[in-house]
Amino acid sequence: MDIKTSKFVISNSKVEDCPNSGLPEYAFIGRSNVGKSSLINMLTGRKSLAKVSGKPGKTRLINHFLINENWHLVDLPGYGYAKVSKKEKKVFQKFITDYFKKRNQLVNAFVLVDSRHEPQTIDLEFMQWLGSQMIPFSIIFTKADKLKPVVLEKNIAHYKSVLMEYWEELMPMFITSSANNSGKEEVLNYIKEINIGL
Ligand code: GTP
Ligand code: MG
């Protein structure tokens, strides 16, 4: 699928204030610094549509982008960011969980995990929670450019084996790099197929 137009719509901290366009929506979620905002830029072919930073905790609001005038991409703040205060963490957590619970037009969440790391409890728990809320999701392994192909393959196989302890069936998975555009077509085609089926 080609992305012909992409534009920023609105940032806010309340799901109630998100655009009530009724358009299908795809959200990117994962730990801080995993590469959510970079991936949105890579998919849209825009250098700085979403704000990126080397420091975790850059995205702090729910950010809506309108794609091809007929669906939304949503950039969310990361979970598990250690440097915010406990109180702030709770507020963050609340608006992220609220978003997933209340956003009826959400059709799929992409849970991003860093392809270099062991499966993390916080990610596995978040996936369990999405499952408990009946929210369809897929996994995106990020920063694949940072690994040699054999190591990447080994890490993904290990991740799958851990997931199989929790899930009867594996969810769709994508391997991406925002540095070299790998995985772009796969993710966009997946979104396209879902949009066609709606
Ligand atoms: P928060 O908004 O803080 O939750 O982070 P985020 O998940 O949006 O991550 P962001 O896209 O801001 O990227 C974090 C850092 O990782 C930046 O320094 C990016 O340049 C880098 N990065 C993201 N994706 C990739 C990738 O695919 N490859 C490489 N090499 N670096 C990446
Ligand atoms: Mg971000």
Written description of the protein model:
It is a single chain. With 198 residues, the chain is α/β, with parallel strands linked by helices. It has one domain: Rossmann fold, CATH 3.40.50.300. Helix content is 34%, strand content 21%. The chain has five helices and seven strands, in the order ββαββαβαβαβα. Helix 3 links the parallel strand 5 (106-114) and strand 6. The model has no long low-confidence stretch (mean pLDDT 94). The structure holds guanosine-5'-triphosphate and magnesium ion. Magnesium ion binds next to helix 1.
Features:
binds guanosine-5'-triphosphate; 198 residues; binds magnesium ion; Rossmann fold; alpha/beta
Number of strands: 7
Strand fraction equals: 15-25%
Q: Largest sheet, described in full?
A: 7 strands, mixed
End-to-end Cα distance: 16 Å
Listed once per kind, the bound small molecules are: guanosine-5'-triphosphate, magnesium ion
Q: Which blocks of ≥5 consecutive residues have pLDDT under 50?
A: none
Please state the CA-atom Rg, rounded to the nearest Å: 16 Å
Named CATH architecture: 3-Layer(aba) Sandwich
CATH-derived topology: Rossmann fold
- Sketch the topology as an H/E string, one letter per element: EEHEEHEHEHEH
Please write the CATH class name.
Alpha Beta
Shape: globular
